[in-house]
Design a protein that fits this description.
heterodimer; A: about 425 residues; 8-stranded parallel β-sheet; 12 helices; globular; B: about 325 residues; alpha/beta; 5-stranded parallel β-sheet; 9 strands; about 40% helix
Chain lengths: ~425, ~325
């Protein structure tokens, strides 16, 4: 990190113009040079012709000097409130997973998250409610009360609901509240291994999870969603067959959505290499053909969103033999640069990438940010898409260092993160201070 | 004859054929010494070898202990209880504690794949893998190779069948690597539930029947059915397993008439191997394998710590 996270930035008031920016408008599917005007924490105006001849006298202006300006990232899969790392990563809204200690299966805990977010004053923080009590997949959690307390969606986090009857009832019941159910589709009885099945697992002598464990559950869930009419969002899609099954369901007109996490389009099972526990994730990193299918799913619209799946693990949980290591990786600070690889490699346009990172997840989860629109919250990110650097676990600002992307050369760096008009993070090189013209 | 210089011996995968030949040649030189009355040399006098066994193994530990003592090294045996749930914590703690006592080599066995690799990154002495989970058991593959080479002259062109519980076997993996590096062809034979996924991508032929699997093979390597590793139902019953996959004289007829029978031990008689076959002195080289084990481990110790200075001494912290 070579910048400054500012929790004490004052509430935005008056007007600020971000001029001379390359604006990415995901919902308008366009990209142009222009300006954004913020008034009292909200987007007041934006467009290619706005302030084309300079900001008018009397309002503050920030010269973006040709850098990109886009809606801030909306990350719907984060464990533990990591406000500073999110700010550095350009994330302006995040949704916390419920597998906390204790799990978010009680309304008071959802209220606690909201209260905590108001204290931390960085990214907007929302919370999932548990789908089942204790995330055990047996009894339904109080979905209605949790929704009333502010839970934006319901999930058992990385625990798949193995019992089809429980999942069926959850999808039915949630309809009463139009609640979104987010499910990690991994057949639990086939997912007890330590990495994906295949040659690498066999060579390393590690027990494997067959990729089939994903598509089996995806197909079951599709049937249940079709039968119940419930709102289903499948999380962290990692295999070619699951992408194909979801594409087929969408082609049949089902309103199913899904996301993937950055590791599944950027890494394959070779990243486990010589027993690298930072590469131990849920679901496990898959084969190269699966990674390519995930990229294709992002290109053709089968996959709707990208999440960081930020899951800190301390050193004691990772510096152990692979089978004993806790799964999960951190991802907030690398989410944008890793995702930008899809643009640099010619797979996606920038507006399409920001649909995946910002506008679509915000829409699916009913969150106010993630788009350029008059009256929308001024949640924005300024970034340099070409800035080259190397991920170094010791330089990341997250408290734990378990990144699966350690030592990866990347391109793209956040220059400023703006939430409700407040600049909560600014890179040292982005020194243009807001000044009265 | 060049003595290969290695920092550690963690596995067979990735070793050059010259390194393997070098270790086998060196092992040969110790066989006569081990058969003579005066078995002890002082090549490793003053060196300390720690046998760190997180998993019980009387045979392998004894073999390493005998090997080190015959070269004059001081040997300390550490049998670490494995009952604690968080054994990973004790692994690195124990490793670094022992490392501070400045041993020249640590011989490690652990129930988790990769545990020995992990440990080797945290110490600055030579680490020998005495078996890690389902990953590798390099000295077993070397002693098997030495046994075969003495009987057949060379490994080149031989057809070897490895039979039984391939999935849970580190012996199978190390042997698959070594035999192929040295030019032998390898078949794996066993029920599909005991075959690891994509094993054929390691270059082996897969057979689910002893009849086709043993056809015309030069060597039959039986594996222990590791019932203690079974998490669920891999085979319906011991008797069914023996009926279809246990080696008896009937099934042995499929192999070449002079095919050798090997087993890494300890044997489950009547499970994967019939007593008559195991004790057939014309065909079974099981006791010879044990003898070669000591010679091979002496060679490995010499290759790792027999030089004038520890190969890793420069890296000492």
């Amino acid at each position: 990190m070579r910048g400054n996270v500012d929790k004490s930035a004052p509430q935005h008031s008056g007007s600020t113009a971000y001029i001379n920016a390359r604006i990415i408008d995901p919902t308008g599917d366009s990209e142009y040079r222009g300006a954004v005007l913020i008034s009292d924490g909200k987007i007041a105006d934006y467009g290619p012709n706005l302030f084309a001849s300079g900001a008018p006298y009397g309002i503050q202006s920030v010269d973006c000097r040709g850098l990109y300006l886009a809606p801030g990232l909306v990350d719907t899969r984060v464990l533990a409130s990591a406000g500073a790392a999110a700010a550095v990563g350009g994330i302006t809204s995040l949704v916390l997973l419920p597998d906390n200690e204790p799990p978010f299966d009680d309304a008071s805990l959802i209220e606690f998250v909201a209260r905590r977010a108001r204290q931390v004053k960085l990214a907007n923080m929302y919370a999932y409610g548990a789908l089942t009590v204790g995330l055990e997949g047996k009894e339904l959690a109080e979905i209605g009360l949790l929704a009333e307390a502010g839970a934006v969606a319901f999930t058992d986090a990385d625990h798949a609901v193995g019992n089809a009857q429980v999942m069926r009832r959850a999808l039915y019941y949630a309809k009463a509240f139009d609640a979104l159910i987010v499910h990690l589709p991994q057949e639990p009885t086939l997912s007890t291994g330590n990495m994906t099945s295949g040659e690498t697992a066999t060579r390393l002598g590690l027990s494997g999870n067959p990729p089939l464990a994903e598509v089996m559950m995806v197909e079951r869930d599709i049937r249940l969603a079709e039968m119940t009419g419930g709102r289903l969002h499948l999380a962290k899609i990692s295999t070619a067959e699951a992408v194909a099954a979801i594409a087929a369901a969408k082609a049949r007109g089902l309103k199913i959505t899904c996301d993937t996490a950055a590791p599944y389009f950027a890494l394959n099972d070779l990243a486990v290499g010589d027993y690298r526990t930072f590469g131990k994730l849920v679901p496990p990193l898959r084969a190269e053909k699966d990674r390519m299918a995930v990229v294709e799913g992002l290109k053709n619209g089968t996959i709707d969103a990208i999440v960081s799946d930020h899951r800190p693990q301390d050193q004691d949980s990772k510096r152990v033999p692979f089978a004993q290591a806790e799964p999960g990786g951190i991802g907030l600070e690398t989410l944008l640069p890793i995702s930008l690889e899809l643009v640099h490699n010619g797979h996606l346009t920038l507006p399409r990438l920001f649909q995946l990172l910002s506008s679509t997840p915000a829409r699916l989860f009913g969150l106010p940010g993630g788009k350029l629109a008059k009256g929308a919250p001024a949640d924005l990110v300024v970034f340099d898409a070409d800035y080259a650097w190397k991920v170094d676990r010791d330089v990341l600002c997250s408290k734990t260092k378990n990144t699966p992307f350690d030592e990866r050369p990347v391109q793209g760096r956040v220059m400023a993160t703006i939430v409700g008009g407040r600049t909560i993070y600014r890179d040292d090189s982005f020194t243009t201070t807001a000044q009265a013209a | 004859m060049g003595v290969p210089r290695l920092p550690h011996l963690l596995g067979i995968e990735g070793l050059a054929p010259e390194a393997i030949s070098g270790l086998l040649d060196l092992s040969e030189s110790y066989i006569d010494q081990n058969r003579s009355i005066d078995k002890r040399r002082d090549l490793l006098a003053g060196r300390t070898v720690i046998n760190l066994f997180f998993e019980n193994s009387t045979r392998t530990r004894t073999s390493f202990e005998v090997a080190a003592k015959r070269l004059g090294a001081d040997v300390i045996n550490m049998d670490v209880a494995t009952s604690s749930v968080r054994k990973g914590e004790t692994l690195l703690d124990t490793a670094m504690t022992l490392n501070a006592m400045r041993p020249d080599s640590i011989v490690v066995r652990h129930s988790e794949s990769g545990a020995v690799n992990l440990l080797s990154q945290k110490v600055n002495c030579a680490v020998i893998n005495a078996g890690d989970g389902q990953h590798e058991h390099p000295t077993q593959a070397l002693l098997d190779a030495l046994t075969i080479r003495r009987r057949r002259g060379s490994l080149q062109g031989l057809l070897v069948a490895i039979c039984g519980d391939i999935m849970h076997s580190r012996v199978a993996r190390s042997n698959i690597h070594l035999l192929q590096i040295m030019g032998a062809r390898v078949r794996v034979v066993g029920p599909p539930t005991l075959m690891p996924t994509d094993i054929e991508k390691m270059g082996v032929e897969v057979h689910y029947s002893m009849k086709t699997g043993l056809k015309d093979v030069d060597i039959v390597m039986m594996l222990r059915l590791q019932t203690e590793r079974m998490q669920g139902l891999f085979v319906p019953s011991i008797s069914e397993y023996f009926h279809f996959f246990g080696l008896d004289h009937e099934k042995l007829k499929f192999a070449k008439p002079d095919a050798l029978i090997m087993h890494p031990g300890p044997m489950n008689r009547g499970v994967e191997i019939d007593s008559e076959v195991a004790d057939d002195l014309d065909r079974s080289v099981i006791h010879e394998q044990v003898e070669m084990g000591v010679a091979v481990r002496m060679a490995c110790l010499e290759a790792l710590i027999g030089g004038r200075r520890n190969a890793l001494a420069g890296a000492a912290a």
